[in-house]
Inverse folding.
């Protein structure tokens, strides 16, 4: 049971009456009707990879977990319509593979792809590694099937790019983290499968303007840029320590960007394009040097390094994660201000800063010192320094959660930083979809009953 | 007053107490509070270019029109963040121009762009000419400001690509046609400004598979395709008659596709790319011949022809429009079935079929014969043949409204074709946002009071 009642980061363990594993949408509807009748809270769960406790029951022992893991079918790949229809419990990696087997790309890719499930990706509006080119999960969502809190099944599994026939219910579910109903199926949009990639390791000059570099790369790559990942020297060092056979690449004095172009065409010379773009960046003085992967194994090594950062942090003693985003025009300013806040808070703290800079999204992580209790340290930082960092992001028009969601751990942040009118609208939606408050109770919005009378 | 109370297609004229023209968001909120207090229905209006009567008051004379036309400011262009913040009353063309002046592209382009306004584009989730590359209006929406039915202002004008902090309220407004509140401002995502374009006139072979041709063009253009517009010979002939100096291009025996690639890079040879792609399409036997624009004036001429089709229809005596979309894999089947339905209904009817085939979206228009009353003819077709055509689209997994919306004219179609669960969810949302039913009453959803008790 523990794998279902403990969150991914092992920060919290709840308890549950039972873990139910329906095999069909009808069974999900039956469960919801029964729970509604008995007033039992339902915690929907996919791969249980939430960083915010979005899929973890409370400690009351009066909630049930509905795991979608048995509903993992690929329902249909339509290569001509460029769409794939799946059960919500399908593992992201399996959906990627099914698309690739049909010569197409599911352009959603993230660290947890081997275990996270599509329903969870929709519930958290997952982002990941190629948002700069392809967008977030919501941008890929063509159709949805979901069970509402009274057992009503919404069935809108159309494969249409365009369908302007009233409110777009599927968009309500994207990012709702199971609080409005249980997503049981989805149709996702596919793209032409890239057959060529050019991947480069850009050693940034000190003070190199990230946003301006990004703008140059997007423009001169004809927007064939799929990835623009920023990594500091410290994050790279952590990753290197976690690898058995790390590549011999180093960071520049301003850090590193891993940039990748992708193309499905035989008629575009991607390496030449990358070389031309890098030459412009060098001429602008923004990068000291660059290394263009000459083979698939070199490309893979760069990516393995990027993906080993979380493991590197974990090996050291973990990190307190800050999944912030700011407008691109403020990214440099955030880095400067935040670094100074960390120094003032405790000059001995170490940072691991990296992330999807192409989207203005940084994982601004404070490393847990090797000799301290991780949970205690996390609590201390989150009640102090974290709020300073989030204040800084908010003051720059940014956010405390770029792609990880709100879940149970960040509700207080939503109340602190969310626009009052927007939260009022969120409560209206919650009440409309879940008047009895049985859908993932405790996640995202606090009960509307506590809202002051207007 | 008539310009405000009559719909764009001049099919319906309502009446109104007054046309109010607020200049600020606060004035909009004041109006809404007053109307809520008095129980007066509010019809928000932008450029009044709805094809579905979405912005037209009823005949009761007890509704007010709130025109956003005075709120037309460009609030901010942020070239580094690639975003633009505007008042909802800003005219689309002016927003495009403001972006272009900053070296960026607002990738929303449609026939009415000289008069439609951003609030209306959001309200209808406008599509248009470059959806295949850039998506619909909702895909460009980064931030929103809106007044709810009790005067609450939702203010979420952030310039963030990623902001997963609970329900995405702005997505509720996209496609809601003013029935959930009044959008007063928005932040839109911009893209690198294309500096090169390659535009080609593809003369389709008889029976050429449109979807397979599209897949080839997307793949081998590295997805630099921005436009894939289908036109039948009849539509081209109508357009030609409406032009003073029409280009000398002809349709192929299977019709024509106007395809355009766009690139912001100096390093990608677009003409060579287009030539390579066209050679593959010719080799596949899907196009008889192709003509690649050799100059900006040739390119403009092709576009003027495409854009003159609605005017050509109007000159003849108008058309009954069917804004259908089907999955790409069914587009050919729809064309075959629909043509046979039209022949069976009345062998003398003429069609003008064209549209955004890259999105599976066809404007399947039945021409009004020159000598008959347009309104009478429209009524007759819409109560008979139209339903047959929509039935066919629905049976193929398609929709009766791809991009025009529901408004007042298509409510019965939503009830006929909409999934029951989805309509139930829509009613919940409507009730949550507008419990008194004062926001654009009569558009999209019928009052929930008539919903049978559950």
């Amino acid at each position: 049971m523990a794998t279902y009642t403990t969150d991914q980061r092992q920060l919290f363990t709840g308890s549950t009456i039972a873990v139910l594993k329906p095999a069909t949408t009808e069974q999900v509807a039956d469960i919801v009707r029964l729970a509604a009748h008995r007033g039992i809270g339902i915690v929907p769960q996919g791969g249980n990879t939430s960083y915010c406790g979005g899929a973890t029951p409370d400690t009351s022992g009066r909630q049930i977990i509905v795991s979608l893991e048995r509903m993992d079918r690929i329902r249909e790949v339509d290569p001509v319509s460029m769409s794939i229809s799946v059960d919500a419990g399908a593992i992201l990696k399996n959906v990627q593979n099914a698309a690739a087997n049909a010569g197409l790309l599911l352009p959603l890719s993230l660290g947890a792809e081997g275990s996270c499930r599509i329903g969870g990706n929709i519930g958290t509006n997952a982002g990941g590694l190629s948002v700069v080119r392809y967008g977030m999960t919501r941008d890929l969502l063509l159709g949805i099937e979901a069970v509402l809190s009274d057992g009503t099944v919404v069935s809108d599994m159309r494969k249409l790019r365009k369908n302007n026939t009233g409110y777009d219910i599927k968009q309500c579910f994207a990012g709702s983290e199971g609080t409005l109903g249980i997503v049981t199926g989805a149709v996702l949009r596919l793209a032409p499968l890239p057959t060529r990639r050019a991947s480069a390791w850009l050693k940034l000059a000190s003070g190199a303007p990230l946003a301006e570099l990004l703008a140059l790369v997007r423009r001169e790559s004809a927007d064939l840029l799929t990835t623009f990942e920023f990594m500091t020297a410290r994050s790279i060092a952590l990753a290197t320590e976690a690898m058995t056979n790390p590549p011999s690449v180093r960071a520049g004095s301003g850090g590193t960007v891993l940039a990748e172009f992708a193309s499905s065409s035989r008629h575009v010379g991607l390496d030449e394009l990358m070389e031309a773009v890098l030459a412009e960046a060098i001429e602008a003085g923004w990068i000291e040097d660059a290394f263009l992967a000459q083979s698939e194994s070199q490309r893979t090594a760069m990516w393995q390094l990027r993906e080993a950062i979380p493991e590197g942090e974990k090996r050291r003693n973990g990190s307190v994660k800050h999944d912030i985003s700011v407008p691109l025009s403020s990214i440099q300013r955030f880095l400067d201000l935040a670094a100074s806040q960390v120094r003032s808070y405790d000059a001995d703290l170490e940072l691991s800063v990296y992330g999807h800079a192409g989207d203005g999204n940084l994982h601004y992580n404070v490393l847990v010192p090797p000799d301290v209790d991780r949970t205690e340290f996390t609590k201390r930082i989150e009640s102090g320094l974290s709020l300073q960092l989030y204040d800084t992001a908010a003051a720059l028009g940014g956010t405390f959660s770029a792609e990880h969601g709100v879940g149970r751990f960040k509700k207080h942040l939503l109340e602190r930083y969310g626009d009052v009118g927007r939260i009022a609208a969120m409560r209206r939606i919650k009440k409309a979809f879940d008047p009895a408050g049985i859908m993932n109770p405790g996640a995202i919005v606090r009960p509307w009953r506590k809202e002051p009378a207007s």
About this structure: The longest strand of chain A covers residues 196-204. The domain at 317-411 of chain A is CATH 3.30.70.2740 (Alpha-Beta Plaits). Chain A touches chain B through 103 residues (CB under 8 Å). The two ends of chain A are 43 Å apart (CA to CA).
